[in-house]
Amino acid sequence: MSDLSLGGLATGMDTQSIINQLVQLEQRPIYNYQQEISELEKTKDAWRDINSRLDKLENKTTDLKLSATYNSKNANSSNEDVVVATASNSSIEANYDITVRSTAKAQRIFGSKLADNYTASVDDTITINGTNIAISSSDTLNDISNKINDSEAGVKASIVDNRLVLEASKTGVDNALKDTTDTGGPTISDNNGILEDLGVLNASGEIVNEPQQASDAEIEINGISGIISSNNEFSDSVEGLTFNIDPEAVVDSNATISVVKDTDKATKAVQAFVDQYNSVMSFIDTKNSYDSGTKESGILQGDGTAMRLQMRLREVVNSKIKDTGDYQTLNSIGIEIDRDGVMSLDSTKLTEALENTPEEVTNLFQAESDVNGYDGMAVKMDSSLDQILQSNTGLIPRRMDFFDARIDTLNEDIENIQRRVDMTRERYVEQFSAMEEAISEMQSQQSWMMSQLSSMGGSSVTGMM
Questions:
Q1: Per the database record, which ranges form the Flagellar hook-associated protein 2 C-terminal domain (predicted)?
Q2: What does the pLDDT look like over 421-430, one tens digit per residue?
Q3: What is the rounded average pLDDT of the residues 185-190?
Q4: Given this model, what pLDDT does residue 2 score?
Q5: pLDDT in tens, 335-382
Q6: What pLDDT band is residue 457 in, cutting at 50, 70 and 90?
Q7: Which domain holds residue 97?
Q8: How many percent of the chain have pLDDT more than 90?
Q9: Mean of the per-residue pLDDT values of the chain
Q10: Is residue 1 included in any domain, yes or no?
Q11: How many domains does the chain have?
């Protein structure tokens, strides 16, 4: 009977509409729960965004804890066509006069001009720097060049004007190819004379054409001579400095490298922190706002957790960091917060502080109580953010877990109510179906009785006539 629905055939009533209206009353809690879930999802999205912004703020805070942020050095060259340099944090602020005595070059040799249709006359093996390269009697000059390059034997092969050109892959005397005249034996040879055929070696195994000999780079630093490198880079001459000579530098040309403190790196790191701090606070303000004109409020309006979070962050950046010295607060080095809570940086003031007392300014950010007797702002902020963001135990993860648990509970409640609603609907369908059947049966009986009465009345009239 539960599947039977006469749909008002007997009564003329829209029983399906009546049932829907009756059931809708029992479904009202579901609509309320769905609305609450929707609000919870929006709140979760807001907290998820806050979490992402705070995570970025933590990264910016970490940069402020690093000594490398404040100890960075720049190496400036008076003539970059002669020499440039890079300085590590360990380098000393000083000037270095560089004079170039020679630049490092790679050896280059070439062979004889050959016919356009040249092919090797015999099978042979070329040995370069201990690497064997098999040559076939049918190989063209291009084939030979490709085989040398594919072998990675420490030379680069090319063809110019039908001549085989070989150039050492690395600069410096130690990387040059040696022939039979060199001490220690040749590093380029063959078995059956292919290199003589190509005009690279003569019959005695000597290099024929060497337009560019290998050379080491040599420089003087502050009058100290004899400083040599097989390439144009000098990384071991001065602690924390690497000099790079221009390969085209003129012999006896000179330049001065000046190593100075790089305050720009620290300034950029602080500005990045300021920008991200404002991003966090501005977003929370937006979600916690109320528009009296439109009567609309942000999704976190009145959220105590959001307000406490802002208070904690403001307290870290506004509080006094230490009790002595010229710089005791962030404000003293150019980091200010206006009445609207917006942070700004006076980069000129920060730069001056870094140049005057770099260690004191650095400690304002990265000092630790067990070493310095107080915690710097970055250390405090990192600790606070860790308590906010840490998985499972952090403020925001716990908040997200609460939302998830509440949503799960609401969904379970919805399922339970929906089951009851379905059972109620089935009961109404059965009841209305039973009513329709009863009325239909009554109507059928009434129709039969009227038919009988009508039949009886007709017979009496006929008999009287």
A1: 214-444
A2: 888 888 878 7
A3: 93
A4: 42
A5: 999 988 999 999 999 999 998 898 999 999 999 999 889 999 999 999
A6: low
A7: 73-103+216-261
A8: 69
A9: 90
A10: yes
A11: 3
Please indicate, yes or no, whether residues 248 and 121 belong to a single structural domain of this protein.
no
- On whether residue 253 sits in a domain, the answer given is yes
Residues 91 and 121 both lie in one domain: no
In a domain, 280, yes or no: yes
Alpha-carbon dihedral 375, 379, 380, 386, rounded to 10 degrees: -150
Residue type, 423: M
Sign of CA dihedral 404, 410, 413, 417: negative
Lookup: tokens for 268: 């950029």
Whether residue 184 is found in the same domain as residue 92: no
State the pLDDT confidence band at 463, using cuts at 50, 70 and 90.
very low
Q: Which of 192, 212, 232 is the last residue of a domain?
A: 212
Q: Are residues 344 and 387 in the same domain?
A: yes
Which residue matches tokens 């710089």?
327
Q: How far apart are the first and last CA of the chain?
A: 53
Question: Which tokens sit at 127?
Answer: 């040995």
- On whether both 220 and 90 belong to a single domain, the answer is yes
Three-class DSSP labels, the chain:
CCCCCCCCCCCCCCHHHHHHHHHHHHHHHHHHHHHHHHHHHHHHHHHHHHHHHHHHHHHHHHHHHCHHHHHCEEEEECCCCCEEEEECCCCCCCEEEEEEEECCECCEEECCCCCCCCECCCCEEEEECCEEEEECCCCEHHHHHHHHHHHCCCEEEEEECCEEEEEECCCCHHHCCCCCCCCCCCCEEECCCHHHHHCCECCCCCECEEEECCECEEEEECCEEEEEECCCEEEEEECCEEEEECCCCCCCCEEEEEEEECHHHHHHHHHHHHHHHHHHHHHHHHHCCEECCCCEECCCCCCHHHHHHHHHHHHHHHCCCCCCCCCCCHHHHCEEECCCCCEEECHHHHHHHHHHCHHHHHHHHHCCHHHHCCCCHHHHHHHHHHHHHCCCCCHHHHHHHHHHHHHHHHHHHHHHHHHHHHHHHHHHHHHHHHHHHHHHHHHHHHHHHHHHHHHHHHHHHHHHC
Same domain? 366 vs 439: yes
pTM equals 0.69
Using CA atoms, how far residue 247 sits from 31, 156, 244, in Å, is: 77, 19, 9
Residues 385 and 240 in one domain: no
Q: Which of 193, 227, 261 is the last residue of a domain?
A: 261
The whole-number pLDDT of residue 464 equals: 44
Residue 31 lies in a domain: yes
- Kindly state whether residues 276 and 421 are assigned to the same domain: yes
